[in-house]
Amino acid sequence: MRFTSLIVELVRARPRLIFWIVVLAQAALWLLLPWLLYGSPPGDVATVLAFGREYQVGTHLGPPLAFWLADVAFRLSGNHMFGVYLLAQLCFILTFWALFRLGRAMVGAQQAVLAVLLTATITAFSFPGAELGPLIVARPLWALILLHTWEIVGQGRRRAWFWLPVEIGLLILTTSAALPLLAMLAVFVLATAKGRRALLSTDPLYAAVVVIVLVLPYWIWLIRANALALPSLPAVAEFQERLLGWGGLLAGLLFALSGVALLLIFNSRALDRKSEDPPLIFRPPVDPFARLFVYVFALAPPVLLSFIAALFGQDQVIGGDGIALLLAGLAVIVAAGDLIALRRQQHLRSVWLVIMAAPIVVVLGMTFIQPWIGSTEVKTSLPARDIGRFFGENFERRTGRPLAAVAGDPHLATLIGFGASSRPHVMFDATPQETPWITPKLFTENGGVVVWRAADTVGTPPADILKRFPGLVPEVPRSFERLVKGRQALVRIGWGIVRPQTPRQSSR
Q: TM segments (predicted)?
C-alpha cells in the first residue's frame, strides 16, 4: 500500500494553507530570535538607523528608501528594535507572497508551494533574516516587479500597469542594483514579441511619468553630489584577479543553492529502492513563454550581478543573494516536469527541517557558545540600550541639555545613536563627509559625547581622536556587561564630553 504523508496531501488539497504556515512560521521565528537574543542589532542595522534618522535624499550608502523605512518602523514601535525586526519580516512575507502568486500563475498552486519550499532553503543559507537594509527592502519590490511584469506581458492584464511603475520607482530609491535589474527587464521585454506588444499602448507613458516623479529628487541629489559617474574600471593587470573574484562570488551563490541540491539528491530515483509508486504533484503544461521568463530571470541576475560586483572589486553580489536567487526554486520546479514525484517523503521532510534549523543553531551557537570558546566579539551581545542610556543621561545631567550628537568609534556611536532617548546625531569624525548633516564645527558648538574602546582603566583617548578633538578631557571609562559574558572581558568604553558653546535658549 502506497504511503502518502499528511503534508503531501495538504500540498495537494490546501496549497495556500501550506504556503502561509511555512512563511508565517519562518517570519515569526526570525522576528522572535533577534528580539529575544540580541542586545544590539545585527549587521549594519545600527548604521541604517543612524542614517535614516536624518532623512537625507541620498548618501554615500546609496538610495534612501530603506533608511527612511527603518527609522519610521523604529519610531512607530516606540523607539524599539522590535519594529525594525518586524518590518524585515514583513518584507520577507511580501517577497514570498509575490513569488507564490507568480508561481501559481505559471505552474499552479500545488507546484508553486514546492517552489516556495525550495526557495525557503535558499533563504536559510544565504538571506540575512533580521538585517533590515537596502538588500531586504529591495527583495519584495523585485518580486512584485517580476509578478506584475508577467501579468502585463504574459497574461495581458493592463491593471498591473498601475502598480509596476510605483514598484520600479521604489526599487530605484532602494538599491543601486535597480539599474542592471531594470536593464535586464527592458532587454527581455524588447526582445520578445509579447513584450513589444505590451508596449503598444499609452500605459508605458503613464509608467514613465510615475517613475520620473518618484525618483526625480534622488536624481537631482545625484547630479548635485557628482555621484552619477561609474566607478573606474580596473587596470588590465587586475582583470585576472577580478575574474577570480567573480568565480568566488559564483561559488558563494552555488553554496546558497546547496539546500536545493540536497533535497533533489534525496528525491532522486536512484536512491528510491521501493517498488511502490511515489505520490505525484500535478500541474497543467507550462506555457513556453512562462518557461522562458523563469529561466531568464533565474539565470541572468546571478551571473550579471555577480560579474558587476567582481568587476568593481566588491566582495558581495550587487543587490544581494536574495535578489539574485529569487527565482531559482521556481526554475527547478519548472524544469522538473508536469508530474513531480515526491520520493522518500520522511527523509525529504527531515532534510528540509534540518536545513531550516541550521541557521537557528548558528545563531544560538554564536549567542551562547561563542563567548565561551572564542575570543572574537559577538557584536549582537553588546547592551546597546544600556550604553545609550548611560551616555545620554550623563550628558544631560552635566550640561542640562539632551544629548545632541555622538562621535568617535563608529560602531559605538551608532549604537548610542538609537539607544539614547534623545536619538542624537551620529558623526563619523574620521570621515565627516559621510555624515553631512553635522559638521565638526556644529558638533563643537552644540556639544556631544565622544566614545572609544578603552584599552586601560584610565581611558586615554586614541591619538587620532585627540587630534580631531583637541582639549578633550577623558572621563573614567564605563564598563558594561555583555549579554553572555563567557570568557570575554567587560565592554570598557572610554568617553569624553564636548560641552556646548552656544547658550541654551530658554522657552517661555
A: 17-38, 82-100, 112-130, 168-193, 205-223, 243-266, 292-311, 323-342, 351-373
Q: Are 172 and 60 found together in one domain?
A: yes
Tell me how far apart the alpha carbons of residues 187 and 117 are, in angstroms, rounded to a whole number.
30
Residue numbers of the domain that contains 166: 6-365
Taking the CB of residue 161, how many other CB atoms lie within 10 A of it?
Answer: 19
Q: What is the pLDDT of residues 15-47, one digit of tens each?
A: 899 899 989 998 998 898 888 889 889 888 999
Q: Between these two residues, 45 and 339, which has the higher pLDDT value?
A: 45
Q: CB–CB of 85/132 below 8 Å?
A: yes
Residue 377 belongs to a domain: no
> How many structural domains compose the chain?
2
CA distances from 157 to 67, 160, 162, 163, 185 (A): 33, 6, 10, 12, 18
Within 10 angstroms of residue 227's Cβ, the number of other Cβ atoms is 12
Decide if 261 is inside a domain: yes
- Strand pairing partners for 59? 62
299 within 8 A of 68, measured Cβ to Cβ: no
Q: Which of 335, 365, 395 is the last residue of a domain?
A: 365
pTM of structure: 0.91
